[in-house]
Write a structure and sequence with these properties.
12 helices; 8-stranded parallel barrel; homotetramer; globular; TIM Barrel; about 10% strand; alpha/beta; about 300 residues
Chain lengths: ~300, ~300, ~300, ~300
C-alpha cells in the first residue's frame, strides 16, 4: 500500500461524518456520495471514525463494515486514517490491524482521560505502540477540550522521537498557536524527526496556523473546498487571498465549531448540500431547534452572498 | 425469570472481577470458581461488567460470552446485574436485551461524562429508559469519582419517580452519608416510590451506611464474607458486633479502595485466595510493585491475626 | 444613586481591564484614559474586577482603591458593575457593601468551582443573597469554561424567581445559543420575572445572540465601538448591516477569544491604540511572543483595510 | 530564627484549624488553647492557613493577624509553616515576606488549577521561587484531589533539584504509595538532593507511608497524639505496635478524611475535646446534621473503648 501517512503528509485530510439513515442504520449509499464529494473537493486524505465520527456509538460489526466500505470506495486514490481510540489496548490493536489489512494509511489515537502527567503519557503511548506494532503509522490527536488531557510541546517531541511510527500531529489544542510554532520549529531538527502537523479545532485559526508552518488541516468543515483552497493559496504564496477567502467563511467556521451541537450543524449542512441523505445523529446526541434551522439558513445565505462578492 | 431486581432488593451484590489468563484471554474456568466462591460466601446477587470489571476492554463478543457464561453458572439461584454503560444508546439497548433474554436480573447504568445539570441527567435517563424499554430494571450508578457526574438527592428521586424501572441506587458518592440518609428518608414516601439502596465506594463506610438505612452493598471487596456478615449482623440487631468485624477488615478495605490500583489489589487477593488463576489485568491497567506485594502480604497477615483475636 | 442595574438594563457593558505600569503597580492615569475611551465609545455600562480583570491578583487595598477610582471617574454617567466572586462570603459581602456605598450599580457573582448540582447552586446563591442583603443587585455570571460550573435554564430561572435581586445574566456558556433563546422566552412570563441578558464569551456570537433577544453585551473586546454599533444597528432594524460590521471584526474577535492569552492580546491592543500606558499583565499570566506580535500587527492592518472597504 | 524547615525536617507537623467564634470572628483565645494543645501532643511543627485552614475566607488583615498571633504563641519552640497559595504572585510574595519576618519557618505552596503539564509546573514554580527569593523555604503541596493538578515523580524531583529552596514535599496524592516510595528512593541520590516528605490525605495510609520512608505527617487529624505516637513507635522500631495503634483510630481517620465535610468533623471533635470554643466554619462551608452528630458520638465512644482495650 503506497498511501501510508508519513512525516511529510500534507494538505486537507477531511474528517468524515458517519452517515445514518432516518432509522439510524448505517447509510452506505450516502457514504459513497460523501466520499465522492470529498474527493471532488480536492482533499488529500480522509479520516474516519474520529471523535466527531460517532465511533463509540457504532457496534463492533458496524465499525468494521463502515471502514471497509470507505476504504473500498476510496481505493488507492488518497490515504484514509482510522480513529481507533478507546479504553482497551486489545480492542485498539485488533481494530488497527483489521483496517490496516484492508488498506488504511494509518490510525489516529487520542489519549485516554486521566493521563495527567508526561510520565503517564509516555507510558501509555509506549504501550500503544507496542500493541500496534511498528508498522502502523500513528496520528497523535492533541484535543484537550474533549479528552481533558494536555500535551506539552516537550511531550509531543519526546513521543515522536521515541516512536518512529508517531509521524503526524492532529493539533487542536486551544489556545494553541504558540504550541504549533514550537512543534514546527523544534521537530525536524537535531535528533527530533519532522512531524506532519495537521490542524483541527474546526479550522478556527487555519490561516494563522498555515502561516506558522502547519502542513494542512484535519477537520470536518462542511465546505471542504474552502479548506483546500486556503491551503493551496498559501502554498502558492497568495497569503492575503487565502485569508480573504477564509474570512468569508469564518462566520460559518465559528458556527460549526460549537462543541457537541457542531456535529448536528455539520450533518445538516452536508444534508442540505445534497451530500448525505439524512442529517440523523445517533442518540445520545445533539439536535437542532427550529430557531437553529432558521439561523443556519440565514448564515448559509450570507455566505453565498459573500462568495459572490468575492467573485 | 423470578430474580429481577426490584425496589426491595437487599443484601450483598458482589461486583465480580473479570478473570483473565496470563495471556490476557478470558479465563472461564476461573470464572466458574469465582462464581462458586461468591455463592459460598453467601452473596445475594452478583454484578458483572461494572466499571471495575474491565468492561470497556472486552470485545463485543467477549462481553456477551462472559455474561452468558456467568448467567449459566449462576442459574436461577441469585440475581445477576449487568453493567451496560457506554457512549451509544443503540449499543446499550442491544446488550441489555441480549443479557435480559438469557436471564439477567437487571442492568446497571452510569451516566456519560458531561451530564452536568439535572436537566441533562433527566434527558439522558429518559432516553435510556425509552431505549431499553420498560421491562428492563435499572440500577442507577452514582459514582462521581469516576464519571465526573454528580446527582443531587432531588435528581435521584425525580428519576425513580419518573421511571418505574429505575428501582435501585448504587450509592458511591463520596462524601455521601447525608445523601444516603436523605434518599432513604425521602423515597418510599408520598408519590416517590421506595428505592433499593446498595452501597459501593469499596464499602469504606459500610456500617454507617447500613445504620443509615442502606439495604446492602454492591462492591467488589475480595473478602465478600465480611460484607455478608456485616449486613447480616446489622439485620440481627448486633450493630456493635457488625462494626467490630468491619473494623478488623478496615485496613484492607481502605487498601483496596485505592482508585485504579485497587483493581490490581483485588485481583491479587482473589488469586492468593485461590479463587482466580491469574491476577492479570488487561492493558492499560495498574500493576503492583514488589513493594506493594510485600505490603499486601503484611496486611493480609495482620488481618488473619485480627480475625483470630476476634474469635 | 440612580444607576443600579435592573431587569431592563441594556446595551454594551464593557469589561474593563485593570491597567498596570511596567513595574506592575496600578496605573491610575491609564485607568482614567481607559474610562474616558470607553465612554467615548458609547458604552452603557462598565464592569470592573471580573475574571478577566485580574481581580485575584490585586491586594485587598488595591481592589478597593481601583474600584473607588473608577467609580469616581465615571461619576453618575453610566452604571458600574463590580466583580466580587471569591471563596468566602464574608469577604464578598464586605467588598460588595464597600463598593455599593461609593456608587456601584451592582455586583457580578460567578459560582465557586464544585457547585455541581442545582441543589448546590440554589444553596450557594441563597447564601450569597443573604450575605449581600436584598439591596445589592446581582449579575449572575454563567461561564462554565472558566468556573467548571454549569447552569441549566431551569436553574437560572429558579434563581431569578427566588431572588428579586438577581436581575441580570452574563451569558457566556458555550455552546449557548439555545440556552439564550430559552432564558429569553421563559423569563418575563408567568411568575418568572424578566432578566436582563448581556452576552460575553468575547462576543463570538454577538449578532446571533442579539437576534435571539439578548439585551446587549458584557465583554472586553478591545474595539468597544464595534460592540456598540452592532447593538445599535440591531435596535435600529439594520440586522444585515450590523452583521456585516461584526463579520469584519470577526477575525479579531476570534483572536481575542483565546482563553488566557486573550487577556494579553486585549491589553496589547488597548496599548497600541493609546488607551493604556503598558500592556503589562501581572504574574502568573500570559505573554505574547514576537510571532504573536507580528500576527497581531497583520490582523490589525487587515481589520483597518476591511473597515475602509466597508466605508 | 533557627527553625526553618529543611530537607531533613521530620515528625508531625499538625495542620492547624482556624478557630472562629459563633459570630464568625477570629477566636484568638481558642487559637492559644489550640496551639498549647498541639504542643502538648508533641507535634514537631505546625502548619497554618492551608487549604483546610479556611485561608481564602479570611481578609488580608485577618490572615496576617492570625499568622502573627500563632507565631507569637509558638515562639521559638517548633517551626511554623504558612500556606500562601493563591492566584497572584505579588500577593503570595508579600504574605510570604511578612510571615517570614515574624518568624515563620517556611511557606507551603500548592499549584494553581490548570497547570496541566510538567512544562507549566516548572514555569510556575520558577516564577514562585523568583518572587519569594531564595531565602524562603518552600513545602510543595501535591494534592490533586483539591487542586486538580498532578505531579509526576520526575516533576517533583526536577523541582527540588532546580530550586534549592523547595525542601519539603507534602505528599497527599491518592493513590500515592508507589509515588512516595519513588520520591524517597530517587531523592538524596546523585545530583538530586534529599527531600523531607510529610504525608497528608488525612493520614489514611500513615503506617504504610512511614514504612516506605516518609519523614512524618502533615495533616490535621483531631487526635494529634495518635500521629505523634505512630511516628515515634516506627522510629523506635515497634512497627506492629505503631500499626495496632493506628488501626484503632482508623475508623475515625476514615471518617475525618471526607473531603469538605471533614473540616466540620475535625472542628467539632476539637470543640468536644475542649480545644476550641466553637466548631464554627465560615460560609460557604460544610455543616453537620443531627444524624452526623449522633454518628460522631458513637464513633468517638467506640474509639475510647478500643483505646482502653489496647491499654
Amino acid at each position: 500500500m503506497t498511501h501510508r501517512i508519513d512525516r511529510h503528509s500534507e494538505g486537507v485530510f477531511i474528517i468524515a461524518a458517519t452517515p445514518f439513515g432516518k432509522d439510524g442504520a448505517l447509510d452506505l449509499d450516502s457514504t459513497d456520495r460523501m466520499i465522492d464529494f470529498y474527493l471532488d473537493c480536492g482533499v488529500m486524505g480522509i479520516t474516519i471514525l474520529g471523535i466527531m465520527g460517532e465511533a463509540p456509538k457504532l457496534s463492533g460489526e458496524e465499525t468494521l463494515a463502515f471502514a471497509r466500505h470507505v476504504l473500498n470506495r476510496v481505493g488507492n486514490r488518497i490515504p484514509v486514517v482510522v480513529g481507533v481510540s478507546g479504553a482497551g489496548l486489545d480492542n485498539m490493536a485488533r481494530l488497527s490491524h483489521e483496517v490496516m489489512e484492508v488498506g488504511a494509511a494509518g490510525v489516529m489515537v487520542a489519549p485516554m482521560p486521566g493521563l495527567a502527567t508526561e510520565a503517564k503519557l509516555k507510558g501509555y503511548f509506549g504501550q500503544v505502540c507496542a500493541a500496534l506494532g511498528p508498522d502502523v503509522p500513528i496520528c497523535l490527536q492533541d484535543y484537550p477540550q474533549t479528552t481533558g488531557v494536555q500535551f506539552s510541546v516537550e511531550t509531543i517531541l519526546t513521543l515522536t522521537r521515541d516512536h518512529p511510527q508517531i509521524v503526524m500531529l492532529k493539533h487542536e489544542d486551544w489556545p494553541g498557536l504558540t504550541k504549533l510554532s514550537r512543534v514546527r520549529a523544534e521537530s525536524g531538527t537535531g535528533d527530533t524527526p519532522r512531524m506532519s502537523i495537521l490542524v483541527g479545532n474546526a479550522a478556527l485559526f487555519l490561516p494563522q496556523e498555515i502561516q506558522r508552518g502547519a502542513d494542512g488541516a484535519m477537520t470536518g468543515f462542511a465546505y471542504p473546498e474552502m479548506l483546500v483552497q486556503v491551503v493551496e493559496r498559501h502554498k502558492a504564496g497568495d497569503v492575503d487571498g487565502a485569508e480573504d477567502l477564509f474570512d468569508a467563511y469564518l462566520p460559518m467556521v465559528r458556527y460549526e465549531q460549537q462543541l457537541g451541537i457542531g456535529l448536528a450543524i455539520r450533518k445538516e449542512i452536508l444534508h442540505r448540500r445534497g451530500v448525505i441523505g439524512s442529517p440523523k445523529v445517533r442518540a445520545p446526541g445533539p439536535a437542532l431547534t427550529a430557531r437553529d434551522h432558521e439561523e443556519l439558513t440565514r448564515l448559509m445565505a450570507r455566505l453565498d452572498r459573500k462568495l459572490e462578492a468575492l467573485g
